[in-house]
Amino acid sequence: MNQKNKIITIIGSGVWGTALSKLVSRNHHHCRLWSRRSLENLESVIHDADVILSAVSMQGVRPTIEDLQSLEISQKTIFLSATKGLDPITTLTASQIWQSAFPNCSHVVLSGPNLSPEIEQNLPAATVVSSHDTQAAEAIQLIFSSDTFRVYVNSDPLGTELGGTLKNVMAIASGVCDGLNLGTNAKAALLTRALPEMIRVGTSRGAKQETFFGLSGLGDLLATCNSPLSRNYQVGYRLSQGQTLEQIITALKGTAEGINTTEVLLKIAQKQDLYVPITYQVYRLLKGEITPQEAVNNLMKRDLKAEFYE
Ligand SMILES: NC(=O)C1=CN([C@@H]2O[C@H](COP(=O)(O)OP(=O)(O)OC[C@H]3O[C@@H](n4cnc5c(N)ncnc54)[C@H](OP(=O)(O)O)[C@@H]3O)[C@@H](O)[C@H]2O)C=CC1
Ligand SMILES: O=C(CO)COP(=O)(O)O
């Protein structure tokens, strides 16, 4: 694909879709930012698009696909997914759903430590674009790369997507950790134990372990779990301050995917008999079954064991 002046249609004009539209426009590509509330119709904005980028939250993925399936889409169009969530019914990632809906097109995932307010400010950041189609991933890499946005490529889309998705659960736990003032040691312990938990789930689904040590895994875990800019972190922090989940969701600006992901992740873990202690405590906390302090106590009081195990 010639890299000059591509037409990029972004579906979902929430904070992430908007931040991505600025990256595209700064690189002098033609960006069409669309949401279900736009006056333009979807058919006109996808016409001749080189890339259809989905930046809707997980609950918007299936409705968006249904709208697009009735329209004519060239097989040359690259689908790019920036959603970080899991489908509650099938437990599939967003890109897996896009792939099965449009099997004849190339699919790429974009995921990394990319808190949108910092991207909006044009602060330096890095991300990963991942696909089984190397050419498509490299085309997306060129479209988004700039002096302030460094884009890497890998060929493990599932691992890339799951890193960004699973860390949202850990970000809730991390917000609790900071809100209860548990200290730097506790935070280091939490994040270090969170990564193997994410890897256990990811590799059981076919993702590569090494991907979780990259930007979309460890990188996004560090960013999201250490920043009050993260909505998922805010959920945990506010729970630690005694707010109810209902109050938090009402006050929260934007989507915290980790709330839904925790439930789906626990379902996966129970079905596949995977050990996910942090996720389990986050789940019970979100359900109102335990207090934040009880979640901490439950994690600390578990049976002793070796640090590394299969
Ligand atoms: N914000 C960030 O820093 C980052 C976010 N992400 C991921 O990107 C995704 C979007 O996040 P973000 O932009 O922050 O969230 P927002 O809550 O700001 O925006 C959500 C978007 O999804 C759309 N949407 C929600 N439900 C539906 C539906 N049923 N049908 C169609 N569209 C729907 C919304 O449309 P409408 O406005 O009409 O409601 C809106 O455009 C999430 O999966 C998030 O994890 C990834 C990286 C960074
Ligand atoms: O994924 C993100 C940063 O990489 C955004 O995190 P939140 O959805 O928690 O705000």
How do the helices and strands line up, and which of them pair or pack?
Blueprint: E1 7-11, H1 15-26, E2 30-34, H2 42-46, E3 51-54, H3 58-69, E4 78-81, H4 94-101, E5 106-111, H5 116-120, E6 125-130, H6 134-144, E7 149-154, H7 157-179, H8 184-204, H9 215-225, H10 231-240, H11 245-251, H12 257-272, H13 277-286, H14 292-300
Parallel strand pairs: 1-2, 1-3, 3-4, 4-5, 6-7
Antiparallel strand pairs: 5-6
Helix pairs in contact: 3-4, 7-8, 7-9, 7-10, 7-12, 7-13, 12-13, 13-14
| Main sheet makeup | 7 strands, mixed
Low-confidence stretches: none
* CATH 4th-level superfamily of the largest domain: NAD(P)-binding Rossmann-like Domain
Number of domains: 2
- Radius of gyration (CA) equals 19 Å
Strand content is: 5-15%
By DSSP (H or I, 4+ residues per run), the number of helices equals: 14
Strand order of the largest sheet: 2-1-3-4-5-6-7
Which outline best applies?
A: globular
CATH topology of the largest domain: Rossmann fold
By DSSP, the count of extended strands is 7
Specify the CATH class of the largest domain. Alpha Beta
What CATH architecture of the largest domain do you see? 3-Layer(aba) Sandwich
* Helix proportion range: 40-55%
- Mean of all residue-level pLDDT scores: 97
Structural class: alpha/beta
Named once each, the bound ligands are: NADPH dihydro-nicotinamide-adenine-dinucleotide phosphate, 1,3-dihydroxyacetonephosphate
